[in-house]
Specification:
This protein has 333 residues and is mostly helical. The chain has a two-stranded antiparallel sheet with strand order 1-2. 30% of the residues are buried.
Length: 333
């Protein structure tokens, strides 16, 4: 009986042991366990990689565009103005000088001159700008520099002659005009016309009281086919003729000067230009009248004075009209 009880007890114990082995055990987390794979974690990393890529690309593009619009050389930013070439500065300076913006023209032309190989034209044009601004020393330096680069430049000689005339150094001016004429003979395509060169030398001879030389130069100027005749050339030759007592030739020249002025008045575009031309014509009529009186041509003198009176009246110049009326009255009817 006792043996049966022990057997039954052992059987129950065996069942419990079997159940215990069959029951699932609770997993134990250890530090050596491998991490489990998560697709969501990979998506987060990919998302941030794309964002960082676009941020980097944006900064790269901005940097490239800044380099294109504002390139740098040796870590120095190059502006749009610095990219201009000497020829660009020359053209800009020329445009500004023609427009009367002398200071700005000098600035641009200085940039053109300061290039590695300054052009003769840039030096000459800056010299002309300096001369217009009464910076005569600077103008002379530019003309000298231009002639050092091109010893047969007609324009440089001519401009330097004009400068010497302003400085009342007539001997130097005459020497430069002669050199300009010699250079023009070698290079007939140069811009300065022979008509202007001879007229300017005639003016110099007139100022130096070389009457015959002045007449010869003015005559040579008027004989040239190129260019437009300046009425001043006729009027100044008339002065030389007057100084030599050749009154009839002087009267003819004043008449020619008035004829050209009449044509110019018709083409004048401003009131100031018409008034200036009219005043010159009035002056020539008076001088012609005085010469006619010297020759005893009273009627011709009266006609000249009446023409001058008509111009003064048209200009509303009361003082001159009164004076001319008095002179006409003195001549009688």
């Amino acid at each position: 009986m006792k043996q049966k009880q022990n057997l039954k007890k052992n059987s129950k114990q065996a069942v419990k042991t079997a159940r215990a082995k069959a029951a699932p055990t609770k997993p134990v987390r250890t530090t050596d366990a491998a991490p489990r794979f998560s697709p969501w974690s990979l998506s987060i990393y990919l998302y941030w990689f794309i964002i960082l890529f676009f941020i980097a690309a944006t900064f790269y593009i901005l940097g490239r565009s800044h380099g294109i619009l504002h390139p740098t050389v040796n870590n120095v930013e190059v502006t749009e103005e610095a990219l201009l070439q000497p020829a660009d500065y020359f053209e800009a300076g020329k445009t500004k000088l023609l427009a009367g913006n002398i200071d700005e023209a000098i600035t641009d032309l200085t940039a053109a001159v300061q290039s590695e190989k300054p052009s003769v034209d840039a030096l000459i044009l800056r010299g002309e700008a300096y001369m217009q601004s009464a910076a005569y020393r600077e103008a002379l330096a530019d003309f000298d520099a231009a002639l050092e680069l091109d010893s047969m430049n007609t324009v440089a000689f001519y401009d330097r002659a004009l400068l010497h005339m302003r400085l009342e150094d007539y001997a130097a001016a005459l020497n430069d005009i002669n050199n300009a004429l010699a250079a023009r003979a070698v290079r007939p395509s140069d811009a300065v016309q022979l008509r202007d060169l001879y007229a300017k030398r005639g003016q110099l001879n007139l100022w130096m009281k070389n009457w015959n030389g002045a007449i010869a130069d003015y005559t040579n100027s008027l004989a040239r086919p190129e260019g437009v005749v300046n009425p001043t050339v006729y009027a100044e030759r008339a002065e030389a003729y007057t100084a030599l007592g050749q009154f009839a030739n002087a009267i003819n020249d004043y008449t020619s000067a008035v004829r050209i002025i009449s044509e110019q008045i018709q083409g004048a575009t401003t009131t100031a230009a018409r008034e200036d031309l009219s005043n010159r014509a009035m002056s020539y009529f008076e001088k012609s009248a005085a010469l006619n009186l010297q020759l005893g041509n009273v009627d011709s003198a009266r006609v000249d004075l009446q023409s001058a009176f008509a111009i003064a009246a048209a200009l509303n110049d009361g003082e001159t009209t009164a004076r001319l009326q008095g002179l006409i009255s003195e001549l009688g009817e």
